Amino acid sequence: MSIEIVPSWMADLEDEDVVFIKKFILASGSLKEIAGQYGVTYPTVRLRLDRLIQKIRLSEAGAEDPFVALVKRLAVNEKLDFDTAKILINAYKKREREGAT
């Protein structure tokens, strides 16, 4: 059986994320084993998994405003810190509300 249509949340992932998911599945979800494979600590792997979860959630929230989704994606990918992302999103939403009235 082959996948003809790749879900959007999966298509949005980077290659290294897909490799991580594959290793995670093959390790039966053992973060300790994944940490050993990557030569890092358990908390490092846990953080990576948490970021991957955030990426997938953002991708599934596709109905969200494109600008807000972009800012969140930048924050998840550590291109922008979360505090700055919140400030940008709040300012954008405030401006959108003011423009709608």
Task: Describe the protein.
- The protein has helices at residues 8-11, 15-26, 31-38, 42-60, 66-76, 82-100.
- With 101 residues, the protein is mainly α.
- The protein has two domains: 1-60, Orthogonal Bundle (Arc Repressor Mutant, subunit A), CATH 1.10.10; 64-101, no CATH class.
- Helix 3 (31-38) packs across helix 4 and helix 5 (66-76) runs antiparallel to helix 6.
- 8% of the residues are buried.
- The chain is elongated and about 50 Å long.
Furnish the topology, listing elements before pairings.
Blueprint: H1 8-11, H2 15-26, H3 31-38, H4 42-60, H5 66-76, H6 82-100
Key words describing this protein structure:
mainly alpha, 0% strand, single chain, 101 residues, 2 domains, Arc Repressor Mutant, subunit A
Based on CA inertia axes, which overall geometry fits?
elongated
Number of strands: 0
Structurally, the number of domains stands at: 2
Structural class: mainly alpha
The proportion of residues forming helix, as a percent range, comes to: over 70%
Radius of gyration from CA coordinates: 17 Å
CATH architecture of the largest domain: Orthogonal Bundle
H/E element sequence: HHHHHH
- Unreliably modeled segments: none
Say what the CATH topology of the largest domain is. Arc Repressor Mutant, subunit A
Q: Report the top-level CATH class of the largest domain.
A: Mainly Alpha
Report the oligomer.
single chain
How would you summarize what this structure contains?
The protein is mainly α. The protein has helices spanning 8-11, 15-26, 31-38, 42-60, 66-76, 82-100. It folds into 2 domains: 1-60, Arc Repressor Mutant, subunit A (Orthogonal Bundle); 64-101, no CATH class.
